[in-house]
């Protein structure tokens, strides 16, 4: 295995990991504030991709723009789709159960996840040959960059990968600013530390929770578009495994810690790519490669939970009840 | 204090049931005698109408065109009519029947009247719509329409008399209790049998409407609560009766056709009950439970002597397969549980979800190409031989007591035994020190540990026990289906068993109870299987049902007392405060 191949794997891993990180931020923010694993977050992610695709498919002028110019418009569509769904889910499914026993909202979240997936599966409208085609039961094509990848040394950098990393960096920079400097961001920190005291201090915790959902969903929409650009397709069930990976990333980085989410995402992405790449590179271990990628990611989660359950950056939240 | 006692008595007198039953006379617009007569007349007419033809052609499924005896859905209407007459007996205060309506008979009448009317009208409407027009109705249809409407009118003209349950009568003699339990369970079995053997969608909808509304009536009249209490007092008799009734089911079948459905329900319910130990008792959310079923099934299939197995020449006896299946499941459970159970419950949820997914990927990949050869990849292990125990070949038809048992009938018997084992384990564990420890951990782990319960050890035990029960069911499942493929064990799929449906069966039925998951599993299997138009919307409705269930009735259909309190803490506290206030007021009144 040459250094170039190894660097190539790391580069791909960084792009993949940045995407995981963007999704993981949503998990970690919601978890940090209301201690809920939002199983439906993977579906918010999926909705983002389909929202963006809808803008592309249904507004013909967008299709004729260069992709880089069309992307911001698509991003708006994706964000609207995923944020609206997130707010609705929070308002009508999760909020009524705020004081219920822990198991109840978790089960609700599973219900929301299945419901959202099936909504797209059954009724997502696409124009097809003058008719509207309803429902998606197979992956749908997503626009991709036409240009050639960049060369850096011997390493190929796909345009979509480069964009993913840039966008993830911008998002994290904004999030850092938001949490540390704005009033709402500090209210969010206060609510995460102690919701009761925060309420006593005049913070509208309900609003803070909605903001956490909105931000998480918006980031998921961004991630979803990068997913579409990188793989050239979106599918109604992509939220399940992406959500699982992103949650792993959130745990890896220390759940409740927003920077941890991104770090965990990057570590997971690189580890995943490098492991499978290295294994596939040698004849003896070849068969343990690509097909086993998810298994290695899962093993990593188990090992982290055994060795460092608070995550790489995380505070110890395991005992917080 | 002593001189106040008579006043106390007089103050609480108006609450006694006999005086309450006089109350409706004041409020009712129509005299109760007339309303009751209306119900009685309607019930008799309803019964009569089922002996008439409801349409003239046989093109509507179920053949409603026969004059002389009831057919198709007319049977449902007939049964409801008879029940209505019985319920009317409670309204007239017939001795012995008052036991049926401890919380007031009007709701019972309303429920049954609605059950008869809605179910009958639905069928008549279906006739009119599917055969294009009311022209397809005959005299009998109009008679049925009117006859079933009368009791509804009568029952809703009676003023509501719902009140606190009357003091249960002096304990019945033992034999009478047993007879009642047996009768109740046998009737439940007949209802289930009818539901399973319905052969077309309209029939099942009519059936479901009737059962649902009648159950509502029975529940609000308090008779179900009374039966539950009776069952709780005679556990052994109840279990024996339930087992006997389940056994009776298979003897009633004339062909193997519906035994397959019954087998699937039994497997599904058995696994759901196993999950209930993990989720309901210990409060550990396991989202990959079906993987343990898969582990058991694969382990058994590999050593069953199936030609496509890696170990085709190893044909171990069934008991050895069970040991291997259970053993491997426990190992898998401990591997998954050991690192995660030390942490907060949420981690377990996600790790088990991951495990369920990983299991599928692993067995897909162990095909000799993208991994070592073990499970034959996506094709799975097929040709798993049918079981043969003590010379009884489960794959061949047998004649027992004059009834022919096909393959699925044979497996039904075996599955019944398996379920009895799981129910037994569940019941014993639930009442033991172990079960109480689990409940304590579920309620508050920190407090439980302060009381000297080793949280981690007990949680791991619950997890391993759950895994082993699923593995056990899996070993039988492999033989029943003759094939084991990765796709059978998914997180969510459109047919049970899968992890999401298993969890839903537990939640829908009622966590921490035995009958809850059984009921939940039967409903979740039957309803989608019987509604053809559900086919692709099944998962959607299922997701919606989960959300609504958690929102409006998180304790499930068969609530566990303790859980109900937990979920409705505020309401209960409010009701208690109200009761205290009321007691204070009446005390003040009494003092004055």
Shape of chain B: globular
Round the mean pLDDT of chain B to the nearest integer and report it: 78
Number of helices of chain B: 24
Overall CATH class of chain A: Mainly Alpha
Radius of gyration of chain A: 20 Å
> Which strand order spans the largest sheet of chain A, edge to edge or round the barrel?
1-2
Give the neighbour order of strands across the main sheet of chain B. 1-2
Percentage of residues in helical conformation of chain B: 55-70%
Strand portion of chain A: 5-15%
Poorly predicted regions of chain A are: 316-321
**Helix amount of chain A:** over 70%
> In terms of structural class, how would the helical and strand content of chain B be classed?
mainly alpha
Distance between the termini of chain B: 14 Å
Per DSSP E runs of 2 or more residues, the count of β-strands of chain A stands at 6
Largest beta sheet of chain B, briefly?
2 strands, antiparallel
**Oligomer status:** heterodimer
Mean pLDDT of chain A: 88
Integer tally of domains of chain B: 2
> What is the CATH architecture term of chain A?
Orthogonal Bundle
Task: Count the beta strands of chain B.
Answer: 4
Primary descriptors:
heterodimer, A: 321 residues, mainly alpha, ABC transporter involved in vitamin B12 uptake, BtuC, two-stranded antiparallel sheet, 6 strands, disordered C terminus, B: 592 residues, 2 domains, 66% helix, globular, disordered N terminus
Written overview of the protein:
Chain A has twelve helices and six strands. By secondary structure, chain A is mostly helical. Chain A has one domain: ABC transporter involved in vitamin B12 uptake, BtuC. A two-stranded antiparallel sheet of chain A has the order 1-2. In chain A, strand 1 (125-128) and strand 2 form a beta hairpin. In chain A, helix 2 (41-58) crosses helix 10 (238-253). The longest helix of chain A has 32 residues, at 3-34. Chain A is globular. Chain B is an all-alpha fold. Chain B folds into two domains: 21-240, no CATH class; 255-396 and 433-507, no CATH class. Chain B has helices at residues 5-12, 17-20, 24-27, 32-49, 74-91, 105-130, 139-157, 174-197, 201-220, 223-233, 235-252, 259-281, 289-302, 318-340, 345-365, 407-431, 433-443, 445-450, 455-481, 499-509, 515-530, 538-552, 561-567, 569-591; strands spanning 388-389, 392-393, 398-400, 403-405. Chain B has a two-stranded antiparallel sheet. Chain B is globular. Chain B starts with a helix and ends with a helix. Classes of the chains: A mainly alpha (321), B mainly alpha (592). Chains A and B meet through helix 5, helix 10 and helix 12 of A and helix 14, helix 15, helix 20 and helix 22 of B.
